[in-house]
Amino acid sequence: MSFGQNVTATKIELIKYKRSSQVATMVQKILDDKRKVLLRNIEEMITEATKARGRIWEPLQDVYKSVNEAYLALGTNTVESVAESAPAVMEVDVNLKRVVDVKIPTLNVTEKETKTMPYGLADTNSSIDRAAKQIKEMLPKICKAAEYENSIFSLAKALEKTQKLLNALENVIIPQYQQRIKFILATLEERERDEFVKLKKVKAAMERKKQW
User: Fold this and answer.
1) Residue 76 lies in a domain
2) pLDDT in the model for residue 211
3) What is the band of 120 on the pLDDT scale with cuts at 50, 70, 90?
4) What are the angstrom distances between the C-alpha of 205 and each of 70, 94, 110, 193, 194?
5) Is 131 helix (H, G, I), strand (E, B) or coil?
6) Tally of domains in the chain
7) Cα–Cα distance between 116 and 121 in angstroms, integer?
């Protein structure tokens, strides 16, 4: 419905605007409830993300230390060759969960069953083994931290969109419906008064004719 058009002051239009205003108010309530749920979930996700980052920070320093030792002891070419030739021993499954109507990916890390070593032992040393073990232990935690970060981003985008719709309803659409309802009511009341005055005049004229 275009708000730029002139309002036709009729009872049918009044009913239409009242119904539209009721629907807009109902949608406003639904969106406000959604906004509250999104805010609550974002706050919870921020708390969990902070914890997840805290759990991986120090272990990651140990991983970097082990990898650096491997580079120093074996050289860049050897370490990168081992990294490229080693088969994947972890699998990451992506599923979806819903928060209100927002789809959020969830990550599940599992270890693959392998019958052989992920890399050869001839050209490696303990730093490679240590780094591989640490990364293997860290991967689920890293994925969980990434999951929380992505969830916060997705929920924040949904919150921004919801807030824009709420602002439009509260500051533009509903007030304009109310203004049009008020205008139509005032116009109809004025018409009724005019009709009443005309009716009184006609009645008075008819009374005068009877007296003649």
Assistant:
1) yes
2) 66
3) low
4) 112, 86, 96, 18, 17
5) helix
6) 1
7) 11
Cα–Cα distance, 161 to 169 (Å, whole number): 13
Is 173 within a domain?
A: no
- Predicted confidence (pLDDT) per residue in 53-99, tens digit: 888 888 888 888 888 888 887 778 877 777 766 666 678 888 998 98
> pLDDT tens-digit profile of 140-160?
888 899 999 999 999 999 999
CB 157 within 8 A of CB 38: no
| Residue span of the structural domain in which 82 resides | 31-160
Residue 183 lies in a domain: no
Residue 156, domain CATH? 1.10.287.3240
In a domain, 95, yes or no: yes
Stated pTM of the model: 0.72
Return the residue matching tokens 């005019």.
Answer: 194
